[in-house]
Amino acid sequence: MVPIKPRISVEYVDKATIVTFTDEKILEEKDLQALQESIMSVIESAAGGINMILDFQNVQFLSSAVLGLLIRISKKVYEQDGQLKLCGIAPKIYRIFKITRLTKIFDIYQDVKSAVESLAAAD
Known about the structure:
Elements: E1 8-13, E2 16-21, E3 25-26, H1 29-45, E4 51-55, E5 61-62, H2 64-79, E6 83-87, H3 91-99, E7 107-109, H4 112-122
Parallel strand pairs: 2-4, 3-5, 4-6, 6-7
Antiparallel strand pairs: 1-2
Helix pairs in contact: 1-2
């Protein structure tokens, strides 16, 4: 049996919960399911509102189903009066966000540092 490696790493910086995707490709349904379970458990374990940053720095390919997952994550974060920021999105993936108009829904930053700073500015 092949062990399933974690799909995310979680780090806490100031008031931010930084979730970094560890896979280069997020294409398979089983990967998506594992991601959803991991990220939703991080959101649910936060007491009160969570300030979540999703870092895509390692991701080069993703399926369109990931976009649906991001919308579900966003809904869950906002239901808890939290904030969601995305960062580190590769240019070719960013084009997909632009075409699907998700750039109007999500706050997208160049890197983790600028996303964390945006949270601090919101206080």
